[in-house]
């Protein structure tokens, strides 16, 4: 049986540790902390792509397995940008998305 709990993650963009609600079975995917979500929220597509690329170029070499679990640098850049855009589609502003996460932390933590 798959369980849901508050789990610790490393932000794909800044490598800081943060928590969010997640299931037991997770494939490698981007994880964006609240602070980075605030930073990227209002960026246009070109600025977002450049920011993600810059962050990953700086941070991914420090990850144990680099880009390998994600299918390469371009795949990770694309999936990170799509993850951020998905949040924009779900909530009106970064603060709403962060409040939803905080409610999950309080309810499930």
Number of helices: 4
The number of distinct β-strands equals 2
The 3D shape can be described as: globular
Strand residue content = 5-15%
Q: What can be said about the biggest beta sheet?
A: 2 strands, antiparallel
- Multimeric status of the protein: single chain
**Low-confidence parts, pLDDT < 50 over ≥5 residues?**
none
Average pLDDT, rounded to a whole number, is 86
Number of domains: 1
Structural class based on helices, strands and sheet pairing: alpha+beta
Radius of gyration computed on alpha carbons: 14 Å
Distance from N terminus to C terminus (CA atoms, Å) equals 19 Å
Helices and strands, in N-to-C order?
A: EEHHHH
Give the strand order, joined by hyphens, for the main sheet. Answer: 1-2
Helix content: 40-55%
Task: Tell me about this structure.
By secondary structure, the chain is an alpha+beta fold. The chain has one domain (4-108). Helix content is 50%, strand content 13%. It has helices spanning 34-40, 45-59, 73-90, 94-108, and strands at residues 4-10, 17-23. The chain has a two-stranded antiparallel sheet with strand order 1-2. A hairpin with a 6-residue loop joins strand 1 (4-10) and strand 2 (17-23). The mean pLDDT is 86.
